[in-house]
TrEMBL record:
This is Cytochrome P450. The keyword Zinc does not apply. Keywords: Heme, Iron, Metal-binding, Monooxygenase, Oxidoreductase. PROSITE patterns: CYTOCHROME_P450. Belongs to the cytochrome P450 family. The keyword DNA-binding does not apply. Coiled coil: none annotated. The lineage of its organism: Bacteria, Pseudomonadati, Myxococcota, Myxococcia, Myxococcales. It comes from the Bacteria. Residues 220-239 are annotated as: Disordered.
Length: 451
């Protein structure tokens, strides 16, 4: 029988390490992992079960898979686990932003930011998101010929995020977007070498260009005697116990983190859902039927009154989680399910792997109604975690859900789309699950009478 999860261990040296292999010296099993993380996990799970060790991305790592394991990881934040980020991400994000700070400082920063990301706070954003999304969708529909959904979605969601983060302040969107794209391209560098022609080197240069530009926006806002009650205003007004404000560099790094955290995640979730809907016309039709009578302009209440929007978004992210996994590090030796995990090891939060949990009926099937009140297949804690869990649960989850609900409602109500035949829809999983073609679409306005 498997002993229960426990920490800290009573007699650590008698407890075995998890089964598995560290692979080659230095490189470990990194190449295998990068070739296909899903196959990597499946093969080891078959051989060793839901707890196994390996050595990937420069460190001894343990995979703990399943709902109970997820709960154990989330409960361990700040006790026996802390966040772990790669060298490239640490360099490119900056040490003072929410994702990289720990303990009390992390809790306080979350408390400061949380009101701007609450569900209720999203009420005022619905008209703005609707206006921006409508403008972009109309441009997509007016465009002659086929287009790549991924790129178009990136531009749209970037504009939406800028509006949330900076209010209606004018920022140079094309300039920021260009540097943002170079910056994010370097965030997941496996070999982060700082040379002018490497993705990492270019990303560092773009980071600086973005920081300078954001710094000007913050500095201009700091000159004002009164701050508007927006996200930037809260960051500027914040004081620590000694009455000190947040340094401007910290504010700028926080803004940059928020742009990053909310961007490719949303692009991935929305684009993949549009692909799934194109591949499942019966579900697309049910979505259209549910939306047909929804009045516009949209409001938080009318969106909430259309649960199918949430089922569709949830099911898309269950089948293809935008973030397949996250990294933690043990801060002391711990025992999980009879296995010893030494201090300093990486612990993977296996978000993608919980798709195979036993409580999902036909887990590989696209079935939005599994989230309906009658079925509630996600009910078991730790089973459905596209936004993570515990103290580091996604800060922007309500924002993401409202933003995506508005986009999906408009798409289902007013537009149609088909996949261009013959494109390569094979997925590349790292850093975000994306079909190789970038999803080529034909996109039209639905019949004039439906508007
Ligand atoms: C579909 C969209 C999104 C998905 C799937 C998603 C997923 C996640 C996940 C899994 C985590 C936890 C990572 C970990 O445990 O290490 C996370 C953290 C975070 N997310 Fe999101 N996210 C989304 C959208 C957003 C948006 C729109 C924002 C903000 C504008 C945002 C801001 C953040 C921040 C700041 C964190 C770090 C929280 C902390 O360390 O305390 N996310 N997100």
């Amino acid at each position: 029988m498997t002993p229960p999860a426990s920490t800290p261990p009573s007699t650590p040296q008698e407890v075995p390490l998890p089964p598995g292999s560290f692979g080659l010296p230095l490189l470990g099993e990194t190449l295998d992992f990068l070739r296909g993380s899903q196959q990597f996990i499946n093969a080891r799970r078959k051989q060793h079960g839901d707890v196994f060790r390996t050595n990937i991305l420069g460190g001894k790592t343990v995979f703990l898979i399943g709902a109970e394991a997820n709960q154990w990881i989330f409960a361990g934040e700040g006790k026996y686990l802390k966040n772990r980020w790669s060298y490239a991400i640490r360099q490119l994000l900056g040490a003072r932003c929410l994702s990289l700070i720990e303990g009390q400082e992390h809790l306080e920063r979350r408390r400061l930011l949380a009101p701007h990301f609450s569900y209720a706070a999203m009420r005022d954003f619905v008209p703005t998101i609707e206006a921006l999304a409508t403008r972009h969708f109309e441009q997509w529909a007016a465009r002659p010929g086929d287009f790549r959904l991924w790129d178009a979605m990136r531009t749209l969601t970037f504009e939406i995020a800028l509006t949330l983060i900076f209010g209606q302040n004018s920022v140079d969107v094309p300039f920021l977007l260009r540097h943002f794209q170079t910056w994010t391209a370097g965030l997941f560098s496996v070999a982060p070498v700082n040379l002018p022609f490497t993705p990492f080197g270019r990303a560092l240069a773009s980071k600086q260009a973005m920081l300078d530009s954001l710094d000007r926006v913050v500095s201009e806002r700091q000159q004002r005697t009164e701050q508007p009650p927006d996200l930037l205003g809260s960051l500027i007004n914040s004081r620590d116990d000694a009455g000190n404000p947040l340094p401007r560099e910290t504010i700028v790094e926080e803004l940059q983190l928020l742009l990053f955290a909310g961007h490719d995640t949303t692009v991935t979730a929305m684009s993949n859902l549009m692909l799934l809907l194109a591949q499942h016309p019966e579900e697309l039709q049910k979505g259209r039927d549910a939306l047909a009578a929804l009045p516009t302009p949209l409001t938080l209440d009318t969106l909430r009154g259309t649960p199918r929007l949430t089922w569709l978004l949830f099911e898309g992210m269950r089948l293809i989680p935008p973030i397949g996994g996250a990294f933690r590090a043990t801060t002391q030796e711990v025992v999980y399910n009879g296995y010893r995990i030494p201090e300093g090891w990486t612990v993977m939060v296996s978000i993608g792997a919980t798709r195979a949990e036993a409580n999902w009926t036909e887990p590989e099937h696209f079935d939005p109604e599994r989230f309906s009140p009658e079925r509630q297949e996600q009910k078991k804690p730790g089973t459905y975690i596209p936004f993570g869990g515990g103290p580091r649960i996604c800060l922007g989850q309500h924002f993401a859900m409202v933003e995506m609900s508005v986009m999906l409602a408009l798409l289902l109500k007013h537009y149609t789309w088909e996949l261009v035949p013959g494109q390569d829809l094979q997925y590349v999983l790292f850093p975000f699950p994306k079909p190789k073609s970038g999803i080529q679409l034909r996109f039209h306005r639905a019949g004039a009478q439906s508007r």
